Structure formats: structure tokens, C-alpha cells
Amino acid sequence: MVNAGAMSGSGNLMDFLDEPFPDVGTYEDFHTIDWLREKSRDTDRHRKITSKSKESIWEFIKSLLDAWSGWAVMLLIGLLAGTLAGVIDLAVDWMTDLKEGICLSAFWYSHEQCCWTSNETTFEDRDKCPLWQKWSELLVKQSEGASAYILNYLMYILWALLFAFLAVSLVRVFAPYACGSGIPEIKTILSGFIIRGYLGKWTLLIKTVTLVLVVSSGLSLGKEGPLVHVACCCGNFFSSLFSKYSKNEGKRREVLSAAAAAGVSVAFGAPIGGVLFSLEEVSYYFPLKTLWRSFFAALVAAFTLRSINPFGNSRLVLFYVEYHTPWYMAELFPFILLGVFGGLWGTLFIRCNIAWCRRRKTTKLGKYPVLEVIAVTAITAIVAYPNPYTRRSTSELISELFNDCGALESSQLCDYINDPNMTRPVDDIPDRPAGVGVYTAMWQLALALIFKIVITIFTFGMKIPSGLFIPSMAVGAMAGRMVGIGVEQLAYHHHDWIIFRNWCRPGADCVTPGLYAMVGAAACLGGVTRMTVSLVVIMFELTGGLEYIVPLMAAAVTSKWVADAFGKEGIYEAHIHLNGYPFLDVKDEFTHRTLATDVMRPRRGEPSLSVLTQDSMTVEDVETLIKETDYNGFPVVVSRDSERLIGFAQRRELILAIKNARQRQEGIVSDSVMYFTEEPPELPANSPQPLKLRRVLNLSPFTVTDHTPMETVVDIFRKLGLRQCLVTRSGRLLGIITKKDVLRHMAQMANQDPESIMFN
């Protein structure tokens, strides 16, 4: 007999379930989203809006607002990311100078701003003005001598320690996720992983404040990587204001991809490079629509930053250069050598940094993050102060290394011996023999290079915001400038050699050392991150050196080849693996001849698969199964005997559906039969009301046969972004393969520890 009351009750329940109940479609923390499901939900939503738009003018206006909401989000992201980047740049400028002295007319002025406003500043002594006083002048009225030097040294160390302590304390107390560069986690999130709070409002606020503090402290780190994290926090905040993005994790990730582009756009003043960086380096799913929106977000962000003009040079970029000579074919050889150096440095850095971070994770060192930051800051400040090239901020150092030596340059690097009979235009200064200043600068640069290489290994990965772009570029720029000066002096003293004879006449300006610094910077950044196309575009946008694309390309490709010879992973992928995130890299190749049956669970000797039947389990049975297991979902079969697959039900949605039915539906008790079919099963007359849950059932789960090659399965997971895939034979359910199983199998095949993949 079919219970008539149950029939009418189930009809009401079906109506109730047609209304989406709260939290359906959301995911647990540290779980992967189902891309296919998110895509189909968005298609349904779009179809509903389109059909409603024909009903009335108001619905039509609502459909237009929905269509334009994407562009509105991009505009807001660009405005906020650009504003934050401008504020960070201005604050860093002031606080970096605060370590050395203070402006008497207005303490919030940096050294440069202070001397701009002074009427007593001359061009020759543009770094000295009465309004700017070093700490020794202010405290003991001395500017020269041993006591003044020691006092300035101590103040430098104290300010650095104060900034670093404040930063690490804020991160620990208010936003633990604000540490690191953020790019490995952003990559993982964009691939479909959920890390709740990683892009939250507290993380945004604390990361912005602490980024200023750590960069000002003089530690060997940059603000570029963390700015991508900051921009993605902005993207997450604005997408939560629009239901189109807040209720669909797949759509939200399209916004985050565009936000990452805006982040690089303001970090380097490179909007096109930002879009390419998002496409090449961080994004997992990047449709054409996202490309346009990324372009728009990067444009708005760059425009906002340009309006704030934090560098005071009316340009978007800090390292703008103008070289007066072209490059020559013979110079490709040293450029390629710099590429080799970049690849070797990248490999060395990744291996040493990962070994140190693993040690931090597995030993007592990880329990004292504040102490570690204080110790590294103290060592950095003590060693950095005596050397003028490590004392100043890394951005200023790179800027000086990139510069060409004009007639008005006062840098030590430009201390050449001038020919008194020289009568040439100011721009076209010929190659000259190096003076004492250049040789002093060379050994100071060599010491700075060794220090930078060592200290960056220990700094990246501490519990503070830390970017890697600027330190890597500094290492390459120092090596490049030294090579450039070497080639320049070789060409000057041996211009009759066959390699110089054709293009370097005596009295000509042949070699530009600044160009070598630029190429070296690109090579080292490429060696560490394994970027190629976006790297070259960022470099020429960063410097304005458009005609030097070929040297940059040669160095970037060489550094990638050399680094790839030692290991395919860039620094971000290495950190993803270190943290055990379930990231299926598009660049990884799977060439082993295994089958789906080798990877699926349950394996031989394991308990059979936990399944639901279509119409014979009670609410209590299902609740017990959910309580005893921690699986993300359960296959639904006709019966345990036939094991014919019907669909797949997500764990979270089952819990919510049962909870809602118990609260809102009369007659639903523990003994109520749950069914996933259209019609209720035949039940005895006195049975409690059955519960229909067809709406939470995915009737088209992705399936493969047991003899599908794993190469194909890996490709399916990668390209469709699956969470799990069911294994069948002739419609009968055999097992299940999850993303975690695929990653563990790949790790096993690569002779790595499969248990390092920790999350689902």
C-alpha cells in the first residue's frame, strides 16, 4: 500500500525543495569545488534571468544590471587596489627614510619630499638640506665622526627591529593568513580549493599595514607578491556584494583571476604584464571574458596609481630608464651567460629555501616565529648598514643599478676618468676607463650580492608578508651590473679585438652596463618563478626599455632552460607541494601506463564502498553513515545487489536537506524512508512519511570505465576541474577516484611521498 498522506506530504516537500535552502552549494573549508557543477548552476541562473527579462521592464533592467555587475566589480577592484598600492608606496618611502633621520618642517615627509620643499637645496648637494636631519644631528648635534656613525647605526637597527616586531605581532594576533607572499595559496584557490578567511577583510587590512612595516624594516623581501594577495582580497570583498559571484565559487574565481592581474599591474606599473601574469602563472580557468575583464581591472588599477603618483616622477614605474645606445649581436653571449646564472641561482634558491622551510615545519624552530623574525631582522640590519648598496631600500638599489651614467650622475658606479678634451653632447658620453669609485662600487656590490643571496633564502617564508620579485631582481641586477662594467672595460681597453672591432670604435659609447643589470634581473626572476612571456612584458613595462626585448627574451628563455634541467618546479609550485595543497598543475606531464582500476578505491582488502540506495534507506541509516565517515559525497545505486549507478549526492547537501526537512516538514522522523526516485516507493500503511531528496542528487556524475588509462583520467581532472570521478563497468559501480587519489598516485609515480598531499 502507498500511504496517501505520504503522497501529499511528499508533494509539498518537493515544492519546498525546489526553493534552494540556505547554504546549499557551499563547500567545507579545505575542500575542492566541483567546477562542472558550478558551471551548470551558473548556466541555469542565466537561463532563468533571460526568460524572466521578457516578462516586464523591471526584470529586463535587472538582467542588464546582472550583465554589468562583472564590469562594476572590476572597476571597484581597480580603484581600491590602485589606492592601496599608492598608499603603501608613500608609507614605505617615509618609513624607510625614518630609519636614517627625520624632516624638521614636517615629520611625515620622506627625505626626498623634505628637500624638495626646502629653498636651500642645491643641485650638487641635493641629498643634503638643513630641514632633513640624521638622528645623530638631532640627538647629539654631530653629523660626522665615529660617535655620529655609531648612533646612526644603532637607530637604524632599532627602527628595523621595531617595524619587524610590530609586523610579526600583528600577523600572529589578528590575521595568521597575512604571512608569506600569498601567490602559492592564490594559485591553489584559483584551481578550486577553499581556504576560508585567506581572502577576508582582516587579512586585507593586516596585510596592507604589515607590508609597509616589513618593507620599511629593510628585510630582503618585496611588496609585489603580497600586492597580488591584497588585490585578490579586494576582489573577494567586492564579489561578496553581488549574489552572482558570492553564491557561485566558479564565478568568484573569475573575479579573483582578474584581481591578480590588477595586483601585478599596481605592483610593477605593468597592466599588460599583469594580465599575462594572471594567465601564465596563477589562473587555472581563464575564459576569454575573464581576459577582457582582467585587462579592464588592470587598466583602472594602473590609472588610479598614476593619479596618486607615489614616485613623484609622473610615471607609473619606479625603474624607468633611457639608454642612448642600441645593443649589438656580440652582446648576446654575456646576456645568455646571465641567463645561465639566473637559472642556477633559481635552482639554488628553491632547493635551499624549501629545505629551510621544511626544517621550520618539522622542528622547534616553527614554534618561535616572532623570535625568528627578530633574529633575521637584526642580522640583516647589522650586516646591511655598513654597505651603502644594502643599506638603502632594494627598489632604490635596483633603480641605481639600471641607470645609465649620464653627465649629471653622482653615483659611485659612474665615477669614470673623464677625458678633458671631450666635446660631445651630454647624452652621448663615450666609454671611459673606470675610476676609483667604480672599483670600490664593484667590491661593495660583490659583497652585497653574496649577502643578498644568503639572507633571502632565510627571509622568504617567515611569518610576515614577503614577496620574492624584488630580492630576485636585485640579485640579478647586481650580477648584471658587474658583468656590464667588465664588458665595458674590456671593450675600452681592447677595442682592437675581433669581437669589438666591428661595432666598438675608440671614443664611442658602446656598452651600457645598466642594460646588463636589467637583463640579469629578468634572468634571476625567471629562474626562481619560471615565468617567460609575462616576465619579459613586465620587464619592458617596468623600465620602458622596449627595444631591449630580444636580450630580455634570450635571458628569460636561457634561465628557464637551465633551471628546468635541475627540476621543473618554480618556487610557488614548490611551496604548494610543501604545504600539501591539492594542486593539479597544468604543466605537469603524466606518462605512466597505469589504469583507473589501479588508483580507484576501494582497493583489494579494503572495506566496500559506502553507497546510498535509491529507495530503501531510512533517514537514520543515512545520518549514521554520514556520522561514521568523512567522505565528501556518496554514490547512489539501485540496490546493493545490482549496484547499478543512478547518481551522486554531496555529503553537505544531504546534511542540510535532512536538517531542513526535520525542521519544516511534519512527519519526518528517523524511520522515514529516503528516496531519490520521481515516485515514492510502496510502503505499508502505517509507515512514517517518506522523504524525497531527488533535488540534491546529481544525475550525471562523471564516470570512467575501469580500463581507462590514468593519463586520460589525469587530463579529465585537470581540464574539467573535477572533485571526484566514479569508476563503472557496464553501468555497475566499481569504485571512486578523487582529486586527492590522483595527486597521491602522481606523487607515488614520481617517487615522492604520497602522504604529503594532505587535503581533499
Number of domains: 3
Task: Report the C-alpha radius of gyration, rounded.
Answer: 31 Å
Beta fraction: 5-15%
CATH topology of the largest domain: Clc chloride channel
Q: Which residues sit in consecutive blocks of at least 5 with pLDDT less than 50?
A: 1-20
Shape label: elongated
Strand order, biggest sheet? 3-5-6-9
Cα(first) to Cα(last) distance is 44 Å
Oligomer: single chain
- CATH class descriptor of the largest domain: Mainly Alpha
Instruction: Give the strand tally.
Output: 12
Number of helices: 29
What structural class do helix, strand and pairing data support?
mainly alpha
CATH superfamily of the largest domain: Clc chloride channel
Mean pLDDT: 87
Q: What helical percentage do the residues reach?
A: 55-70%
What is the CATH-assigned architecture of the largest domain?
Orthogonal Bundle
Can you tag this structure with a few keywords?
elongated, disordered N terminus, 760 residues, transmembrane, CBS-domain, mainly alpha, antiporter activity, single chain, CBS domain, Clc chloride channel
How would the blueprint of this fold be written?
Layout: H1 4-18, H2 35-53, H3 57-98, E1 101-103, H4 111-117, E2 132-134, H5 135-140, H6 146-174, H7 183-190, H8 201-216, H9 224-239, H10 243-246, H11 249-268, H12 271-282, H13 288-308, H14 332-362, H15 369-384, H16 388-391, H17 394-402, H18 436-459, H19 469-493, H20 498-501, H21 513-529, H22 533-543, H23 549-566, H24 571-579, H25 596-599, E3 612-613, E4 617-618, H26 619-628, E5 633-637, E6 645-650, H27 651-664, E7 673-675, E8 691-692, E9 697-698, E10 703-705, H28 710-720, E11 724-729, E12 732-738, H29 739-749
Parallel strand pairs: 3-5, 7-8, 10-11
Antiparallel strand pairs: 1-2, 4-7, 5-6, 6-9, 11-12
Helix pairs in contact: 2-3, 3-8, 3-9, 3-11, 3-13, 6-8, 6-15, 7-24, 8-9, 9-11, 11-12, 11-13, 12-13, 12-22, 14-18, 14-19, 14-21, 14-23, 14-24, 15-18, 17-19, 18-19, 19-21, 21-22, 21-23, 22-23
Main location: membrane
Subcellular location: Endosome membrane; Membrane
Pfam family, one: Voltage_CLC
